[in-house]
Amino acid sequence: MTATLLGQRCGESSGLTSYHLRQLASAGFVKDAEPADLIGRRVDGRVRWWEAISQVTVTQLPDDGDEASAAASEDHERAVIELYTERARAWVVAKHTWPPQLQKRSSLGDRALYLTPTQVAALQTELTDLLARYCEHGAAGAPVPNGMPTDALVFSFQYQLFPDPEQTPPVTSDPDEEP
Q: Tens digits of per-residue pLDDT, 83-139?
């Protein structure tokens, strides 16, 4: 992603997005893209390509009492939720332009699960392991690796796992204790 492309996507100036990309780089979130990752893209001395350090977004609870980190974490989570929502909306708008067999393989859904904290941890581990088996082919936008089917497409897998906020939280002194 370049600052110009990011600016167009966000509705901001390339100068502003360039500044923020440099800030993200200084914090270790993005880096200059590797030349091997830019095959098929316009590359010249004036265009700076950036890539995320991590291809996975996972949120975690900040340390107790760290109000600045808690506020930053909440801002990040809100931005991620907004991004997930926009991706889903974009699919709903664009899906009619995709072949029927791909429309049928795509879905939006939800399910209420009654889980203990131990079961939630197990589910998180199982989902991580399952997704890892499908992530062997490289990051979205990367050239198709050798041996990967040429008709392979990038699919967005988004999920949220949290207690239904409309229920009353259990009272417990130990956060890992079964309620």
A: 888 888 888 888 889 888 888 888 888 888 888 889 999 998 999 888 877 776 555
The verdict on pTM exceeding 0.85 is no
21 burial level (CB within 10 Å; 0-12, 13-18, 19+): buried
| CB 106 within 8 Å of CB 95 | yes
Q: Structural domain boundaries of the chain? A: 1-54
In this structure, what token pair is assigned to residue 170? 């259990």
Residue 175 corresponds to which tokens in the numbers above? 């956060």
